[in-house]
Write a structure and sequence with these properties.
Layout lengths: L4 H24 L2 E7 L2 E5 L11 E5 L5 E5 L5 H34 L3 H45 L6 H46 L13
Antiparallel strand pairs: 1-2, 1-3, 3-4
Length: 222
């Protein structure tokens, strides 16, 4: 097979240019990682395993500009709090929907008080589950905080310093415990409010039906 000399020469001339472009692209993608460790700012072109879950910034090695900011990984307790807050949002949405349905269709959709009470059963289950979950989270957080405080106290009694990581962990767990206690109080208040809402809805239903004694044996969801 005959080779075109001009084509071969062009390929030879272009090869270094292509390699240079590849090297340039590789260099432009290189980045630095910066995070806090024991109160000190640490930067490296490689992220060690012990820093993977820490909050960090990613900086372009070529431009020196920050390209990303990564939050630290959530703890188990923080994930539990986030789940509880998500459950709260679902509960609020369900409450709005329940009110809309009961106001618009009370006379036409429900033939009995028992049928009306089924509308509230899902919300009642959600609130009860939220109360139990918050109670469990509070107990778990409190036990963990007590253990950390005992360890920190023993170290101080032994004349050893309490590390900054341990002190930060104690502060973080305390804040999480306060948030979870607030969530628990909110859920317990909502459970009482739900009982009041059920009783009020029953009263309106009976008045709109014009029969105050209709299905009088039905009881609010509990």
């Amino acid at each position: 097979m005959r080779h075109n000399p001009l084509l071969m020469l062009s390929l030879l001339l272009l090869a270094p240019v292509a390699a240079l472009a590849q090297n340039k692209d590789a260099g432009s993608n290189k980045k630095l990682y910066c995070w806090d460790e024991n109160g000190q700012r640490v930067c490296s072109d490689a992220l060690p395993a012990e820093a993977v879950n820490r909050a960090r910034e990613e900086i372009s090695a070529r431009s020196g500009l920050k390209t990303a900011e990564i939050d630290r990984a959530l703890t188990d307790e923080e994930r539990a709090v986030a789940a509880a807050e998500a459950a709260q949002r679902l509960l609020d949405e369900a409450k709005v929907e329940t009110r809309r349905r009961t106001e618009q269709a009370m006379l036409t959709s429900y033939r009995s008080e028992e049928e009306l009470m089924r509308v509230f059963s899902e919300r009642t289950t959600i609130v009860d589950n939220n109360v139990r979950t918050a109670q469990y989270n509070v107990g778990s957080l409190r036990d963990g905080l007590v253990s950390l405080l005992q360890v920190a106290g023993d170290r101080e009694l032994d004349g050893k310093p309490v590390s900054e990581d341990m002190a930060n962990n104690i502060r973080r767990r305390h804040l999480e415990l306060m948030r979870q206690l607030q969530l628990q109080a909110n859920f317990e208040r909502q459970r009482v409010e739900l009982d009041d809402e059920v009783a009020e809805t029953l009263q309106r239903y009976r008045a709109m039906k014009g029969d105050g004694e209709a299905d009088a044996t039905a009881t609010p969801a509990s």
